[in-house]
Amino acid sequence: MEKWKKWAVPAGLLLLLLVFWEAAVRINRIPLYVLPAPSQVLRSLAEEGATLAGHARVTVGEALAGMAIALALALILGVAMDAFPAVKRGIYPVLVVTQTVPMIVLAPILIIYMGFGTAPKILTVVLMCFFPVAVSFTDAMGQMNEEYVQLVRSFGAGKWKAYRLVKIPAAVPGLISGLKVAATYSISGAVVGEWIGAQSGLGYYLLRVKNGYMLDKVFACVLVIVGLSLAMNGLIRLCQAAVMPYEKEKRP
Amino acid sequence: MKLEVRNLSFSYGDRKVLEQVELQAEEGEFVSILGASGCGKSTILKLLTGVLSGSSGEILVDGMPVRGMSEHFAYMPQNDLLFPWKNILDNVCLYGRIHGSLEEARKEAMENMAAFGLAGYEKSYPSALSGGMRQRAAFLRTALCKSDILLLDEPFGALDVITRGEMQDWLLSVRKRMNRTVVLVTHDMDEAIYLSDRILILGGRPSRVKAELSPEMPAEGRNRDWLYGQGELRRRIHREIMETESGKEDRL
Q1: Which of A109, B23, B25, B187 could form a disulfide with B31 if both were Cys (CB 3.0 to 4.6 A apart)?
Q2: Whether domain A39-244 has CATH 1.10.3720.10
Q3: Which of A147, A155, A157 minimises the CB distance to B145?
């Protein structure tokens, strides 16, 4: 009952908005190139399903590859920054500054350097995903209870063994929070890369249908992007349940 | 093993905490260090384990000087510091994991689970256990160290009065099984009287050993009734502690 109520309000609001939207388009005879009706968007989504699926596969591949690279980089750099304060002092501010450069500026430059293949798209994803993962991982290690480290050290563990036994596992919840943020960025990152220059992928498709003023297809593609971003987020939640089974056993 | 501490002094920055502390514990002896909060009791244990450094004086184990981290001491902090991401069995086998003898540690742990009141909880995560059980698990983890001297830093300080009493009874009953030299740090007078062969009272500013008392050991062993009959000893300890505390006030 409670759960049903929780969902009823947002779902009802959304439905109301869609009905209003549909009615507004039909009554005012708004042309397709200005605003498509929701029913038209759904029809296009069904018609273009196979094409969209093909492009989505390319985009998801780039997003996953970028996420994997970002994760590996964040783990290595996170441990390095935690172990050597000089590394942290040197790199951390640079990391923050790189995040302030708009991706829409960087993406074309990457294409100039790396060509029109998948490499610049993956790199765009890496650049967008690396920061939240690295920061949340490093912060989680920095904020952990130092007594845990003292305990394993007093049990005879060396510096690196202490990382493996305590510091990295203790930072996993923080790492996963960062990955959740990164996962929702990853699809958009790949789309931005494809938008700038590509032969396939959702960004390429989006650019093509936009230039043809087929706004129903643009909206259909956006729906796919939203769905995939949520799915990436869900994937991280699945990983969380797999690597953190102890969370479920908590006493109420 | 026999522990001897000579002339131990230590400062946090400009503030001198310990002044020429002397401490001995014979093989198999249970020695308590009793004192008010903030008197530097825990600092002594941290110096022994090597977690803190920069003290003057000597620490001898069986006549051999010890510096820095050493394999002679097994440290147990006030917080259980169990790893939330490991089940109880893996948690208590920490020493074996660090020193590459995990299988042996597992076997030994399973033999001791019942005596430590943890039978049936081997595969549970710490979050599913009560405070008293977690503390017993931390005890087992410390007892499974191959070190000969156990350093207990207010091991029951975070528990409620009833659970604390149960844990003290339990510790009294497993002392023989552990068969180690024990140094217990506590601010609980009854706990010190109930468990110790010898009590050292720490006080003053900076702290030094003010008095040394040996509660009797009745032939039939100690129990709660025996403890309630120790009025004279409690009065004496109280007097000693209050003297050192009022002395501190004068100097402030």
Answers
A1: B25
A2: yes
A3: A155
Say what angle helices A202-211 and A49-83 make with each other, to 10 degrees: 130
Residues B157, B50 share a domain? yes
Rounded to a whole number of angstroms, the distance from the CA of B83 to the nearest CA of chain A is 8
Q: B67: helix, coil or strand?
A: coil
A21 — contact with chain B (CB < 8 Å)? no
Which residue type is seen at B84? P
Give me the mean pLDDT over the B158-170 stretch: 80
For residues B95 and B193, membership in a common domain is answered with no
- Which structural domain, as residue segments, surrounds residue B218? 3-72+150-251
CA distance A135 to chain B (A): 22
pLDDT value at position A205? 92
Residue that finishes a domain, picked among B131, B146, B161: B146
B209 in the same domain as B160: yes
User: Between residues A60 and B188, which one has the greater pLDDT?
Assistant: A60
Q: What is the pLDDT of residue B244?
A: 63
B91 and B68 inside one domain: no
User: Model confidence over A219-242: pLDDT tens digits?
Assistant: 999 999 999 999 999 999 998 888
Please tell me whether residues B164 and B47 are part of one structural domain: yes
Is the CB of residue B94 less than 8 Å from the CB of residue A164?
no
The CATH code of the domain that includes B32 is: 3.40.50.300
pLDDT at A59: 92
ipTM of the complex: 0.76
* Strand arrangement of the beta sheet that strand B73-76 belongs to: B73-76, B149-153, B181-186, B30-34, B198-203, B208-213
Q: Which whole number is the average pLDDT over B45-59? A: 79
Q: Going by C-beta distance under 8 Å and a sequence separation of 6 or more, which residues neighbour residue B251?
A: B205
Q: Report the number of distinct structural domains present in chain B.
A: 2
Nearest to A155 among B87, B98, B125 (CB): B98
Residue A167's closest CA among A190, A146, A182?
A: A146
Residue A147 CB partners (closer than 8 Å, separation 6+) = B77, B79, B81
Q: A-B interface: how many C-beta pairs under 8 angstroms?
A: 66
Contact B196, B184 (CB under 8 A): yes
Look at residue A122 and tell me whether its pLDDT is greater than 80: yes
What's the pTM?
0.77
Domain's final residue, options B107, B129, B146: B146
Q: Which residue has the higher pLDDT, B135 or B159?
A: B135
**pLDDT at A63 > cutoff 90:** yes
